[in-house]
Amino acid sequence: MSSFEVYKAITAVTSELAKQGISKDKKNQQQGFQYRGIDDCYNALAHELAAAKLCILPRMVSKKEAERTSAKGGTLFYTAVDAEFDFVSAIDGSKHTVGPIYGEAFDSGDKSIGKAMSYAYKAMAFMTFAIPTEGDNDPDANCHEVKPQKQQPAKSAAQGQTGTTGTHAQGGEKKATEGQVKLLNGKITKSGITRDDFKAKYALAHVEDLPMSKVNDAIKWLDEAITAAAS
Known about the structure:
Layout: H1 5-20, E1 26-27, E2 34-35, H2 38-52, E3 54-69, E4 75-89, E5 95-107, H3 112-128, H4 178-191, H5 195-201, H6 215-230
Antiparallel strand pairs: 1-2, 3-4, 4-5
């Protein structure tokens, strides 16, 4: 193929989009910045791609998923994708591949994969066609505050605690004292760890059921979480 119509088509689309651009008409509700949505991108590209007889064929090369905890204790689903996009001319079949292009997103439901793919497509389009606008290009319509991932604490040396003697836990072992429970509850609040997470870690029905032998370990774990949250 001597003419490489695919590059002529890319240039033609770039030329047309340079005239109109894509303005930042959408507003992020959490942080207040303006951004360009995926629908804005599709609306601007659809006619120009058809006119230039240019096809864009996406391909997801890899995907990574994880669950994280939000700052408020809810579950967030994280997805990252590596994508490649084949630009193919319908005139002569010449092809150019753009990628890898990366996209990532958080969502509290089942939309993180769609958001990640949409961001990868937007990034590809804005960079390939140099679509103009004013200001910085921000990634997503939604932002999520993510709690730092917990680190497994090391065993601590015994530390004396004041307070009245607690009642007995299962197996006859004494429970944490009233003063220790008050201290633990304060640290749980500061750490961002939910009480459900705390109870699950130590297999408790209630925080006050914590055996006295595990108080030092719990304090060490919570102190590390407080330090991580503050960093």
